[in-house]
Design brief:
By secondary structure, the chain is an alpha/beta fold. It has 16 helices and ten strands.
């Protein structure tokens, strides 16, 4: 009798050890769904290394880290960990160790030497653009100005439109603080467009005063034009229209950025490279995750709205990320390659 029980226990143990794990079952199911041959040795969808995500210190990068962590867990079943970091340290660590695995908002041009070193070592690279748009700076006008002048769609049209908007006085142009590079570019752009006598340039002392001036002008329904950058909550908190800045001309842009620019010519602000950076092992071990980041480009207007939510009383980065997952499935499921029906 005792030998019979030992035989039963041995059979159960052998069956248990031969059973695939939950992760293996998931891989098998996915392989069958895709028509591929299902084997117990198929690679895990999330790779074999920690799926760590860098949460940079500025709000948009922090939001993206939390959003992508949630999508990777919900859509792919990955175990993710969000880690704090700054641009240079994250880039250096990714380039040397492959960790963190993901940096959703990487600005390679700001850390060119670190980025290039990591690329040359074949330790990290871009998976795709973080944002749909590549231009992050520009001129804007409030919606009531756009409604009164429907033909005013571009900065080049300001010379004709401003005298109609304000026949007796120059229109206020809210620039950025005088010591910022954008202040010099704006002054030269105004000259290049022949707006010197049509605008009154205001260069606030700091970012807080800049936002206060914009909010005050909107509240008073004043006609004005202003410079700003994206992503930013201000552009979602009020109704603004971006002015087309024309083509980017490198030689003209370089002159606009100099104090001595004798004959300034119009140019759009220089585009910037902002990418979802992945450690090289993600491409080789977790190609579906790499493909996800190749699709996961956020519209700037969407991020502006998220940043506005973050400014609401009691809001947290985690809470705004949860709200995005709950309310914007149509967007993030498209990134995951499973758009809702």
């Amino acid at each position: 009798m005792r030998q019979w029980w030992l035989g039963v226990l041995l059979a159960v143990a052998l069956c248990w050890s031969a059973s695939p794990s939950l992760a293996q079952l998931t891989v098998l199911d996915e392989a069958q769904d895709s028509g591929a041959g299902a084997t117990a040795t198929a690679p895990l969808i999330c790779g074999t290394q920690p799926m760590t995500i860098a949460r940079m210190s500025w709000p948009s990068a922090a939001l993206l880290a939390e959003i992508h962590a949630r999508v990777l867990r919900q859509a792919y079943g990955c175990h993710t960990q969000v880690l704090p970091g700054d641009l240079a340290n994250v880039g250096s660590s990714m380039g040397a160790t492959g960790q963190p695995a993901i940096a959703p908002e990487m600005w390679p041009g700001r850390i060119a030497e670190v980025w290039n070193t990591g690329m040359e070592a074949q330790m990290l690279r871009s998976a795709g653009n973080t944002y749909v748009e590549a231009a992050f700076e520009g001129w804007f006008s409030p919606d009531y100005v756009a409604e009164s002048q429907p033909e005013l769609t571009a900065a080049a049209g300001l010379a004709a439109a401003l005298p109609l908007i304000s026949p007796d006085n120059p229109v206020q142009f809210i620039s950025c603080p005088a010591e910022w590079a954008c202040a010099l570019i704006n002054r030269n752009l105004i000259r290049s467009l022949g707006l010197q006598d049509l605008v009154a340039v205001v260069e606030p002392a700091n970012r807080f005063e800049m936002d206060t001036l914009i909010a005050g002008a909107v509240s008073a329904k004043e006609p004005f034009v202003f410079y700003y950058w994206q992503p930013n909550a201000v552009l979602a908190q009020f109704a603004f229209v971006g002015l087309e800045m024309g083509a980017y001309e490198e030689a003209a842009a370089q002159c606009l950025a100099r104090v001595e620019c004798p004959e300034p010519k119009p140019s759009a602000f220089a585009p910037d490279m902002v990418v979802g950076a992945l450690a090289e092992w993600v491409f080789t071990e977790a190609p579906q995750i790499a493909a996800y980041f190749s699709r996961a480009s956020m519209p700037l207007a969407e991020m502006n709205a998220l940043l506005a939510q973050l400014n609401e009383p009691g809001a947290t980065v985690e809470g705004v990320a949860d709200r995005f997952i709950a309310e914007r499935a149509a967007l993030w499921q498209g990134w995951a390659g499973t758009p809702p029906s």
